[in-house]
Amino acid sequence: MKVLVLYDYPASPGGLATQGELLYRGLKEAGVDVYPVNFESAQEKEWYYRWFKPDIVVGIGYWGHTPHLVLHPQQYGAQAVPWLVADGYIANYQEILNDLPLILVTSSWVKEVYIRDGIKGDNIEVLPVGCDTDAFRPVDKSDPKVAVVREALGIKSDETMILTVGGDAASKGAHEVMQALAINNIKAPPWRYVCKVWPQERTQLQNLADLKLAEQLGIDKNIIYTMNRVSRNFMPYLINACDIYAAPSRLEGFGMPQIEAGACAKPVIGIRAMAMLDTLIHGKTALLAEVAQEILLKETTLGAESGYAERHRYVFDKPRTVDYRASVYDIANYLMDLMEKPELRLKLGQAARQHVVENYDYRIVTKRFVEIIKNRFGLS
Predict the structure, then answer these.
(1) Which residue from 102, 191, 135, 71 is spatially nearest to 369, judged by alpha carbons?
(2) CA 138 vs CA 236, 238, 242, 342: distances in Å
(3) What is the mean pLDDT of the chain?
(4) What distance in Å separates the CA atoms of residue 248 and residue 192, rounded to the nearest whole number?
(5) Is residue 314 within 8 Å of 301, Cβ to Cβ?
(6) Distance CA 264, CA 252 (A)
(7) By the number of CB atoms within 10 A of the CB, which of 26, 52, 310, 378 ranks highest?
(8) How is residue 14 annotated by DSSP?
(9) Tens digit of each residue's pLDDT (9 = 90 or more) over 65-95
């Protein structure tokens, strides 16, 4: 079997790049003839098609990347297999995606979204994102690499550190977490809430809105936003510095940071919806807040990227779910339980580590990928 993997290569710290990088690594370690290439590099992709002649071209992205991940390899007779996340309403490429023999998606919820938006479904297989459980592993807070993280953030030894990681914090449920912390603030043990967000233009206004909310809630002195660009090498130590990982996300097609936190034996607070129904087990590996609100849209505005004139008004046949809001009171109760009960944190964290190692290690995901490809295409 010869595989060409299209993703954001060389890998940036982002989720899609990591998803592709770990598949490439897993295939290479498994002895598969495989090469990585940047999904937008038309010239280099063509170079591989012509001399490498891959059996499968697997591309990591979302439906809007169809020209890069599907149409481009098809020009050269290559078998395209996109591995997709959800990203809003699938406004274009339904015919092209329906014609593929195989589409991989990151969770059962993403599959439901694609079927909702016009993909037939019998060509969709769920393949979760892998995790490097050798890098993301439990490291004691006394380890210098972890201790220095807490020290640099200004976290005292007696303070419970709660952590959220994301491109922005609000989409990961930070507003709901802040409201829950405000409810608990006076009665809770000492705590600090750290939001690690990626430095990008689109999140600057969102970060200001988040910090404004913290000020309005009267908890701004306990909130730490860190916006430095960091490598994947740093992330395991940041996660190990925390006591609780909180991400009751508003929209989540997989939830890689939640899995990485579990791999580091950290208890996770999530939401009982979307991909977290696949990846987290309430009461065993995580605590899942109920959905308090489902945000629906009756119409949207589409543009050239979706095959329409700019600012085209599109009315849905039925209202579409845009995102979710977790119950603030559930989050508050779960935070208080975890802050007051170190033994509960330990129990959930240990179970989470075992669950991730057994189900989401990148080598296990790679093995599943190979099985799916062999079954669908009869390759050896």
Answers:
(1) 102
(2) 8, 11, 11, 15
(3) 95
(4) 18
(5) yes
(6) 20
(7) 26
(8) S
(9) 999 999 999 999 999 999 999 877 787 899 9
- The mean pLDDT value for 134-163 works out to 97
* pLDDT exceeds 90 at position 362: yes
Would the CA dihedral through 228, 231, 236, 237 be positive or negative? negative
Instruction: Return the ∠ at Cα 94 (arms to 85 and 275), rounded to 5°.
Output: 25
Contact between 137 and 110 under an 8 Å Cβ cutoff? The reply is: no
Determine the Cα–Cα distance for residues 278 and 262; give it in Å rounded to an integer.
14
| Other CB atoms within 10 A of residue 285 CB | 24
Candidates 70, 41, 42; CA nearest to 57 is 70
pLDDT value at 318 more than 80: yes
Measured in degrees and rounded to the nearest 5, phi and psi for residue 28 equal -65, -45
Q: For 260-302, write each residue's pLDDT tens digit.
A: 999 999 999 999 999 999 999 999 999 999 999 999 999 988 8
- The count of residues in the chain is 380
- Are 303 and 310 within 8 A, CB to CB? yes
> SS3 for 348?
helix
Domains assigned to the chain: 2-130+361-377 (3.40.50.2000), 144-359 (3.40.50.2000)
